[in-house]
Amino acid sequence: MLPYRVQAVISLSLLFAMVAADLLIPRLTQRIIDHGILARDLRVVVTTSLVMLGASLVSAALALANNYLSVRVAMDVGADVRSALIRKVQTFSFGNLDRLQTGKLVVRSTSDVNMVQMMMMMSLRILTRGPIWVIGATVLLVLTSRRLALLMAAFVPVIVVLVWLFSRKARPLFAGVQQRLDRLNTVLQENLAGVRVVKAFVRERHEAERFDRANEALMSRTIEITELLAVFLPAMFLVLNLAVVGAVWIGGSTSIEGGMTVGEVVAAINYLSFALFPILMLAGMMGPVAAADASAGRILEVLDAQPEVLSREAGRKLARPRGSVAFENVTFSYDGDGAEPVLQDVSFVAAPGETVAIVGATGSGKSTLIHLIPRFYDVTGGSISFDGVDVRELDLRALRAQIGIALQEAVLFGGTVRDNIRFGRADATGEEVLAAAKAAQAHEFIQGLPHGYDTEVGPRGVTLSGGQRQRIAIARALLVNPKVLVLDDCTSAVDVETEIRLQDALDELLCSSQNSVTRLVVAQRISTVLLADRILVLDQGRIAAMGSHQELLESSPVYRDIYNSQLGGVGVGKEGRHG
Fold first, then answer.
1. Are residues 271 and 335 in the same domain?
2. Is the separation of the CB atoms in 389 and 360 below 8 Å?
3. With pLDDT > 90 as the criterion, what percentage of the chain qualifies?
């Protein structure tokens, strides 16, 4: 709230003035009764009534101004928190994102922020108004009748105990609601994203039942909170009503004995209600307070999280990057040193302009290996160097600016085809976009779209096929003019003929003297890697063999098995293309 402290202070000042106007009403009521009605003085009744009307109008005007400012501050704070969450998430490494799943981050950026936002608004209204009202009404009650003030004091411990019991029970329940909302959102997101797979495997009933379980878990916890409120609020109102009954009894008896005027009794009862009702109101807010407290904790968990991969202060920037990549005894585990390593003792060098292919069985660590180059993760042991400098010594943004990467899952963003190709270089010219698209074998199909390069691709590129999305992702990687191009099985949805044309176009574009680019290619399809300068064969996280295609056919049983399983019995021409 600190950036909006001026509005917040004005809002609170208006609140003080509003409470003062409200607390004036019982005293004016006392004057009307004692000096107007009982004294049969119409002038006092009229003038005091006009003062009461003025006080009510002032209170209403102050309340409107307070509401406006409190809502404005709360909305601004909510917007700031959401922005801070997104900016924080953008700093996270893949390791952070593996633990803070997408569904949970969505709930924290929406539902949790809304809870905190509402509590911020309430803090400038009810949560502050209540205590001021209690203090002011209590002081005026003591000045009006000490006996009734003692009666109120007798009821306060009862209210405090009830509030304590409620808050003790409510907080874990509200925290549980948010956790179950996390689960519900995750299941919902999986269902919506994978609806085609669900339909293809006729698993609608299974997924509906899975959603129902998450939905019913959330519903049952919400019912627990509702049941708690159903007991708590009537109990609190019972205490208030008993206090009023006691005040009428004691005040009436005192008035009959001549110890108080009728107006004083009425004023005292009003002040007693003014003192106890805000306590009830605040008690009723304990549920939302507990929910906001739990939500704030979950938001702070994200905001306080430290990225596992950090850019070194004053990190080095390479003046003339060449694109040499070297792995030296690299070991990596997703859960730190104590966990089972995914990569073990991996060493190789990709010289500038070379094409290094990485093959292996599913789960052998191929994608993990290439994710280490741009420091999506940091190595657990050993080192990776870029042009002879440990990547951990380089400025992170400068390092990634030299690497073009097309990941296994081609993710596009809402917008046009042109916008997605220019994602890494917003200032790229139309000619550069066209050249990248042609090299990625995307230009032909883009021209066939309704509006060509200005066609909207829809959320996550839903209007395009898998192969089309992959080619746009490759064009996006090429457009940044990288010194190292990383292709993570990004032609799996492309037919063989298009893939051959794509490789030829990349060779022509990237191997020119002025654009020498190091390529690291992960592939499941063996035809993708036949012409690579060097092929790494990964087996259970280790390099089982390394060499050219012909060398590996002769020396590596693992590579030979992969080759024979895909191209066994098929001849290979002198240029390495299978046919």
1. no
2. no
3. 13
CB atoms within 10 A of CB 327: 22
- CA count, 13 A, side-chain hemisphere, 109: 16
3-state secondary structure of 383: strand
CB contact set of 163 (below 8 Å; sequence gap of 6+): 279, 282, 283, 286
Structure confidence at residue 579 as a pLDDT band (50, 70, 90): very low
To which H or E segment does residue 45 belong? helix 42-91
DSSP 345-369: EEEEEE-TT-EEEEEESTTSSHHHH
Q: Please report the beta strands in 381-482, taking only residues with DSSP state E, as ranges in sequence order.
A: 381-386, 389-390, 403-406
Q: At what angle do helices 111-123 and 42-91 cross, to 10 degrees?
A: 150
Residue 389's identity, in one-letter code, is: V
Q: What is the pLDDT of residue 337?
A: 61
Task: Say whether both 386 and 342 belong to one domain.
Answer: yes
Residue 352: phi and psi, rounded to 5, are: -55, 130
Task: Determine contact, residues 127/242, Cβ cutoff 8 Å.
Answer: no
Task: Report the first-to-last Cα separation within the chain, whole angstroms.
Answer: 68
Rounded CA separation 487/472 (Å): 13
Q: Look up the CATH number of the domain holding residue 428.
A: 3.40.50.300
Query: In b/e form, how buried is each residue of 491-517, taking b as 16+ CB within 10 angstroms?
Result: bbebeeebbbebbebbeebbeeeeeeb
Q: Give the pairing of strands 484-488 and 403-406.
A: parallel
Q: Distance between CA atoms of 425 and 553, rounded to whole angstroms?
A: 41
Q: What is the pLDDT of residue 203?
A: 82
* Strand order through the sheet with 355-360: 403-406, 484-488, 518-522, 355-360, 534-539, 542-547
Say if residues 326 and 384 touch (Cβ distance below 8 Å). yes
For residue 539, give its domain range: 323-400+484-579
193 touches 309 (CB < 8 A): no
Same-domain status, 54 and 111: yes
Gyration radius (Cα) of the chain, Å: 35
CA distance 235 to 418: 63
**pLDDT at residue 426, as a whole number:** 86
Helix axes 5-31 and 126-144, enclosed angle (nearest 10): 30
pLDDT tens digit string along 131-169? 888 888 888 888 888 888 888 888 878 887 887 887 778
Sign of CA dihedral 66, 71, 74, 80: negative
Q: How confident is the model at residue 221 (pLDDT cuts 50, 70, 90)?
A: confident
Number of neighbours of residue 32 by Cβ within 10 angstroms:
21
Predicted confidence band of residue 573 (pLDDT cuts 50, 70, 90): very low
**Which residue has 């959603």 as its token pair?**
211
Kindly report the backbone phi and psi dihedral angles of residue 177, in degrees, each rounded to the nearest multiple of 5, phi listed first.
-60, -45
357 & 440 share domain: no
Q: pLDDT at position 492, please?
A: 65
Q: Is 485:353 a contact under the CB 8 Å cutoff?
A: no
